[in-house]
Amino acid sequence: MKFFRNLDPSTIQIRTFVFLLLFSSFTFVCKTPEVKKAPVVEVKKPEPVEKVVEQQDPNLAFLESIEDGRELPESDKWKVEQYDVFTEDTFPSYGPANATIDFSKVDYPLLNAAVFYVSSKERKSLGLRPFKYSERCEQAAFGHAQDMVTYDFYSHTSTVNGKETLRDRLDLVGITDTYSAENIINSFGIQYQGGRAVFTPTQNGGPFFSYTKAGAPIPNHTYLSLAKAVVETWFNSPGHRKNILNPEFTYMGAGTSFYKDKKFYDIDKVKAVQVFTAKP
Predict the structure, then answer these.
(1) Domain count across the chain
(2) Residue 256: is its pLDDT beyond 70?
(3) Where does the secretion signal sit in this chain (predicted)?
(4) Residue 192, SS3?
(5) What's the CATH number where 208 sits?
(6) How many CA atoms lie within 13 A of 191 on its CB side?
(7) pTM
């Protein structure tokens, strides 16, 4: 080879070493990279609550609240003990239930109670036993409503690890081995009449919706009127109606969570949930 011609042996040896070194370096650098496999989605049994919390984003506030005592929001208008005082017939006369909702400070326990009593009244009017209140059902319902708002989804299947199914959510609050079902809804916070055209805040030049341009703002719901609107919509859906009227379900708890719909002029909306079980 010309590369080695007219060279003394020592020079040939050095150049051979350099050539081999370069060749070995070249083969190392050009080594075919490993092909990373696509992650495999596995269905696993939910781990204990404390482990789930440790592995998740620390902003999962409600998941932590279940672990730390299963506490619902505080309210000066509605306490759990009042479920033993009011009935589906007397609740509508309760003053705070008829107050207009301030979306900046919603009294969730009161709104959850309104949904509970309106649902129970519908059952009673059709000859069924009214629901018995379950605080654990309310915890599961309220948590799912919050998650749907926080993580921007609308489904019976949660995107939160460890809370994917209703069974998961009931296990977290301590309800096991029981017949159960769930209703969900995404509804307006204002007293909008379905089918009517509205003028938007942009068209009105102010932060409100109306039926006429710059006309009277469509008012916010009261706690009771929102509950009636939500339950009426469920009743117009065969599957949801069947859950509410199923005589196998003795216990129920409702949960709600408000948000502003950024896809439509920040209109105030609410995601609501009912959880039904055969035992508390």
Answers:
(1) 1
(2) yes
(3) none
(4) coil
(5) 3.40.33.10
(6) 13
(7) 0.76
